[in-house]
Design a protein that fits this description.
The complex is a heterotrimer. By secondary structure, chain A is mostly helical. Chain A is 79% helix and 0% strand. In chain A, helix 1 packs antiparallel against helix 2. The chains are: A mainly alpha, B mainly alpha, C mainly alpha.
Chain lengths: 99, 578, 194
C-alpha cells in the first residue's frame, strides 16, 4: 500500500480494531450456536456462513484485499473457481454412483 | 536497473556454477539433470521391453547384475517389472519432461524473451532446482530399498499402494520434494512474466512460448497442491496406520487388515487425477510453445492466428481443471457426473485443435527452411494429431469401456508425449543451442537423429493401438502372453521392443552431437537463425543481467517478411521508422 | 544487477514482486487445504457414523481467539513500521510470536490428551482427518513463527538500511500469517463444532 500519512494509518488502525472485536464476537456466536444442537444441514450452513464472514473480514481488512490490485483479484477469483470445483465435484461424483 | 555491477563478478566457483541464482545457469542445471533422468527412464523401459518381447528369457548382459531379488538367473520377476513400470512413468513425467520443458527451457529462455535481467525471485529459483534435485535423488534411492522401488504404477492407486513395500513411501517423499520445487517455480514464473516484461512488451506481443509457460505455471500452481495433500494422506496411511484410502473390511492374503477402515480408494483417484490431468497439459503446452517459435522462424512469416492460439491456450488451461474424471469412467460413476466429464472432455479438444490448426496453416505460403529444429517441429504436428485423435474414444465413456487400461491408452498418451513433446524439446535444443554456445549442432547428425527417431517412435507406438484394441491390458509383466485373446497380436511385442532398442541407438547420435558441438561445433554469428524475439538480442552467451542496454519493444513477436522491410526479419526491439 | 519492482511498484500492475508472489503462493495453499477439506467431506459423507463432542471445544475456542489476536498484532506491527515506529513494531511482532507459542502450547495439551486415551489417527477416519488437518495447519504456524522470529530478530537490521524494503517484507509475512489464521477460522467450526 502506498500510504505515507500517519493519519491514514491511524484510520486503518481504527478499522483493524473494529474488525478484531467483530471477529471475537462472531467466534463466541458460532460456538454458542453449536450448543443449540441444530440438525446437520442447518448447522453446517450457519457455521459456514459465520466462518465465511470472519474469513472475509480477515481477508478484506487485515490482508487489505478490499483495496488490492486487479491482478490479485484475478488470480484469487480463478483460484476460488477451482477451489469450488475441488470441493463439490468429487462430492457429486460420490453421490451419483451406479448401485 | 540492468547492467553489471562489478561485485557480481567476484562470485566463487560454488556460487557461480553450483548454487547460482542466475536463471541461465539454473536452466542449464535443469537441462542436464533432466536429460540424464530421461535417459535413465528410457533405459528402464528398454529393460522392460526385453521381458515383453521374450517373457521369461534371461536379460542379456545386465541380467546377472540385477540380483536375485529382481531377476534370479537374469529372468525378470513380475515384482521387478512392476517397479520398472511405475518408475519409468514417474521418472519420465516428473523428473524428465516437466523439468526439461519448464525448468530448463522456461528458466533459460523466458526471461530473455521478455527482456528481463533475471527471474523475479532468483534465490527461490535456485532453491527450486536443488529441491528438484533432492526429489530426484530420493526417487532413485527407492530402487535400493528392501522390496525395491515403488511398484503400484505411476498412479499409485490405493489400497495396493497403501500396503506396498517401503519404496512407495520413498516415492511419496520424493513427490513432496518435486511438488514443492514446482510450486516455488510456478510462483516465480508467473510473477516474472507479469512484472518483469520490458517496456512496450504488452501481453499480446509476447512470444507464444511465453504464453505457454504462463498458462503452464498456473496449472502447476493450482493443480499440484491436491496431489501434495493426497501424498500426505497416503503417507499417513502407510506410516501412521490411518485409513484415508482403506475401505472397511479389506482382506489381504487371507487376513483382514487391522485398520479402522472407513476410507475411500476413490478419494485418492480424485485427488491424484485433479493434478494428473492438468499435468498432461503441463507436458504439452511448453512443447507447443517451442514448436510455435521454431515454425515462425523457419517459415519466415508470422504465426497464423496468434490471437486465437493465445485464447485457446488460456481456455485449454482453464478446461484442464474440469475434465479429470475421464480417467475414472470405470469406477462406477453415475450418468450425470459421467455426462459432465464426457462433455468437458470433448470441449477441451477444441482449443488443442485450434492451436494445431493454426500451426499447420502457419506453414502455408511460408519459405520453409528444413533445418533440424524445423524437422522435429514439423513432425510434432501429425504426431500430436494422432495422439489427440486417439484420445477421443477414451474421453467418451462408452468407447472407454473396452479401451480403458489397455495398450490403446499407452499408445495414445505416448504419441502425445514421445513423438509429441519430446520431439518439440529436441527442436528446442537444436534451435537454442547457438544462443547458449555460439555454435551450431551438426546438421547431418541431427537429420539422422530425426529420421531414426521418427521411424522408431511410430514403430513402437502405432502397434499399441492394435494390441490394445485386441484387449491386451497394460502393466502385464508378460505382455499378455498368458491370455488367449492376446495370442493373435503377441508378435507385435517383439516388433515394438526392437523399435525401442533401435530408438535408443539413434539417441546416441544426439548425445554425441550435443557434447561434441559444445566444443567443436561450427561457430556461428549472433542471431544465427535470424529470429525476431528478444532472446536473440543479447550477447552470446548472455552475461549476468542479460541485456547490455535495457530493451524496449515496439513490435509483435513474429515480424518476418514484412513488406518493405530491409531484411526478412525485424527484431521486436527495433524502433519504428520515424 | 538489480531486479526491478522489488521496492517500488510496477506502474501498470501497481504491485511489487513479493506482493504478487505471496498471493500466488497463498492461492496454492488454498488448493492444498481445499483438497483436505474435500477429503473431509468425502470421508464424512461416506462414514457410517461420525463422532460428536469428542474434541475440547472451550480450549479450541481459546485458541481461535489467540490466533485472531495474533492477526491483529501482526497487522499492527506492519502499521507501526508504516508510522516509522520501530519500537512499537518490535512489541507487536513479539506479541504475535508469543501468541503463536500459546497456540502451539494449547495444541500440545490437546494432542497429548487425545493420545493418552488412545484417540490416535489410526483409531478412526475422524481422528485421522483431525490430526492431519490440524497437524498440517500447525506446521504452517511453526513456519510462520520462524519467519516472524527472523524479522523480529536478525532480519530487523534491514530497518536501518532499507526501511521501505523491510516494511514490504513484514507486510508479505503478515499476509502469510493472516492466511494461517484464515485456515483456522474454517478448520475450527468444521472439525470442532459440526
Amino acid at each position: 500500500m502506498e500510504l505515507s500519512h500517519a493519519e491514514d494509518i491511524k484510520k486503518h488502525v481504527k478499522v483493524y480494531i473494529s474488525v478484531f472485536v467483530t471477529l471475537l464476537a462472531l467466534t463466541i456466536i458460532t460456538v454458542t450456536i453449536s450448543y443449540f444442537n441444530l440438525s446437520v444441514v442447518p448447522a453446517i450452513i450457519v457455521a459456514l456462513i459465520i466462518a465465511s464472514i470472519k474469513g472475509s473480514l480477515v481477508a478484506s481488512y487485515f490482508m487489505h484485499l478490499i483495496s488490492e490490485k486487479k491482478m490479485i483479484y484475478a488470480a484469487l477469483s480463478l483460484t476460488a473457481v477451482f477451489f469450488l470445483v475441488l470441493i463439490f465435484i468429487p462430492l457429486l461424483a460420490m453421490s451419483d454412483r451406479i448401485h | 536497473m540492468q547492467g553489471n555491477h562489478s561485485h557480481d563478478l567476484q562470485l566463487g566457483f560454488w556460487r557461480k556454477y553450483v548454487f547460482s541464482q542466475d536463471h541461465k545457469v539454473i536452466g542449464i542445471q535443469y537441462g542436464f539433470t533432466s536429460l540424464l533422468f530421461l535417459l535413465f527412464g528410457f533405459t528402464l523401459m528398454m529393460i522392460m521391453r526385453w521381458q515383453l518381447a521374450y517373457p521369461g528369457q534371461p536379460i542379456p548382459i545386465i541380467g546377472s547384475w540385477l540380483g536375485d531379488d529382481r531377476a534370479p538367473q537374469g529372468i525378470m520377476l513380475p515384482e521387478f517389472y512392476n517397479q520398472l513400470g511405475a518408475m519409468h512413468g514417474t521418472i519420465m513425467v516428473f523428473l524428465g519432461i516437466v523439468p526439461l520443458a519448464v525448468g530448463a527451457f522456461g528458466n533459460y529462455v523466458m526471461p530473455l524473451q521478455i527482456g528481463a535481467p533475471d527471474m523475479a525471485f532468483p534465490k527461490l529459483n535456485m532453491m527450486s532446482y536443488w529441491v528438484y534435485f533432492l526429489g530426484g535423488v530420493t526417487m532413485l534411492t527407492s530402487f535400493v530399498m528392501p522390496g525395491g522401488a515403488a511398484n503400484s504404477g505411476w498412479t499409485s492407486y490405493p489400497p495396493l499402494s497403501d500396503i506396498a513395500t517401503i519404496g512407495q513411501t520413498v516415492w511419496l517423499i520424493g513427490m513432496v520434494f518435486l511438488i514443492t520445487s514446482s510450486l516455488l517455480g510456478s510462483v516465480n514464473f508467473i510473477t516474472t512474466i507479469i512484472q518483469l516484461r520490458a517496456k512496450g512488451l504488452t501481453f499480446m506481443r509476447l512470444p507464444f512460448f511465453v504464453w505457454a509457460q504462463f498458462v503452464t505455471s498456473f496449472l502447476l500452481l493450482l493443480a499440484f497442491p491436491p496431489l501434495e495433500a493426497a501424498g500426505v494422506l497416503q503417507l499417513m496411511d502407510r506410516l501412521a496406520g490411518t485409513s484415508f484410502f482403506l475401505p472397511s473390511g479389506l482382506v489381504v492374503t487371507g487376513q483382514p487388515l487391522n485398520v479402522s477402515g472407513g476410507g475411500s480408494p476413490l478419494l485418492w483417484q480424485h485427488l491424484f487425477w485433479f493434478l494428473a490431468h492438468p499435468e498432461v497439459y503441463v507436458l504439452i503446452l511448453p512443447a507447443m510453445g517451442i514448436v510455435a517459435e521454431v515454425i515462425a522462424n523457419n517459415t519466415r512469416k508470422p504465426l497464423w492466428g496468434y490471437k486465437s492460439m493465445v485464447y485457446a491456450a488460456i481456455f485449454l488451461g482453464f478446461m484442464s481443471f474440469i475434465v479429470w474424471a475421464h480417467h475414472m469412467f470405470m469406477t462406477g460413476m453415475g450418468t450425470i457426473i459421467s455426462t459432465f466429464f464426457q462433455t468437458t472432455t470433448m470441449i477441451i479438444s477444441i482449443p488443442s485443435i485450434i492451436i494445431l490448426t493454426a500451426l499447420f496453416i502457419s506453414l502455408w505460403g511460408g519459405s520453409i527452411r528444413f533445418t533440424t529444429p524445423m524437422l522435429f517441429a514439423l513432425a510434432f504436428l501429425p504426431m500430436f494429431g494422432i495422439g489427440g485423435l486417439t484420445g477421443l474414444p477414451l474421453g467418451l465413456s462408452a468407447t472407454d469401456i473396452p479401451l480403458h487400461d489397455t495398450y490403446y491408452v499407452i499408445g495414445h498418451f505416448h504419441y502425445v508425449v514421445a513423438p509429441g513433446t519430446i520431439f518439440a524439446l529436441f527442436a528446442g535444443i537444436y534451435y537454442w543451442f547457438p544462443k547458449l554456445t555460439g555454435r551450431k549442432m551438426n546438421e547431418t547428425l541431427g537429420r539422422i537423429h530425426f529420421v531414426g527417431s521418427f521411424v522408431c517412435m511410430n514403430a513402437i507406438f502405432m502397434p499399441m493401438f492394435i494390441v490394445g484394441l485386441a484387449g491386451v491390458s497394460r502393466r502385464l509383466w508378460d505382455g499378455g502372453a498368458q491370455y488367449a485373446h492376446a495370442q493373435p497380436v503377441l508378435h507385435w511385442n517383439e516388433f515394438m521392443s526392437h523399435g525401442a532398442w533401435a530408438l535408443g541407438v539413434f539417441q546416441l547420435f544426439f548425445i554425441f552431437n550435443l557434447f561434441w558441438s559444445i566444443r567443436k561445433g561450427k561457430k556461428v554469428e549472433e542471431n544465427y537463425w535470424h529470429a525476431t524475439t528478444l532472446e536473440w538480442a543479447t550477447p552470446t552467451p548472455p552475461p549476468h543481467g542479460n541485456f547490455i542496454t535495457v530493451p524496449e519493444v515496439f513490435r509483435p513477436p513474429y515480424e518476418y517478411s514484412v513488406p518493405g522491410a530491409k531484411k526478412d526479419y525485424t527484431p521486436q526491439n527495433q524502433p519504428m521508422e520515424a | 544487477m538489480e531486479i526491478p519492482y522489488t521496492i517500488k511498484a510496477r506502474p501498470d500492475t501497481g504491485l511489487i514482486n513479493a506482493k504478487l508472489g505471496i498471493w500466488l503462493f497463498l492461492a496454492s495453499e488454498v488448493m492444498l487445504f481445499g483438497a483436505l477439506f474435500s477429503s473431509y467431506i468425502l470421508l464424512r459423507v461416506g462414514a457410517v457414523e461420525w463422532p460428536h463432542h469428542v474434541l475440547d471445544v472451550p480450549l479450541a475456542t481459546v485458541n481461535t481467539a489467540v490466533l485472531i489476536t495474533s492477526s491483529i498484532t501482526m497487522v499492527m506491527s506492519w502499521a507501526s513500521l508504516m508510522m516509522k515506529d520501530f519500537k512499537k513494531y518490535k512489541i507487536y511482532m513479539g506479541a504475535t510470536i508469543l501468541l503463536g507459542f500459546v497456540f502451539l502450547t494449547i495444541k500440545y495439551f490437546e494432542y497429548s490428551h487425545h493420545i493418552e486415551i488412545g484417540e490416535i489417527p489410526s483409531k478412526s477416519t475422524f481422528f485421522a482427518i483431525y490430526f492431519t488437518m490440524t497437524g498440517l495447519h500447525m506446521l504452517h504456524v511453526i513456519g510462520g513463527m520462524i519467519v516472524n522470529s527472523y524479522f523480529w530478530g536478525p532480519g530487523s537490521k534491514m530497518w536501518k538500511t532499507q526501511p521501505e524494503r523491510f516494511t514490504n517484507r513484514v507486510e508479505v509475512a503478515g499476509l502469510y500469517w493472516h492466511f494461517v489464521d484464515l485456515v483456522w477460522i474454517f478448520l475450527f467450526p468444521v472439525l470442532y463444532l459440526l
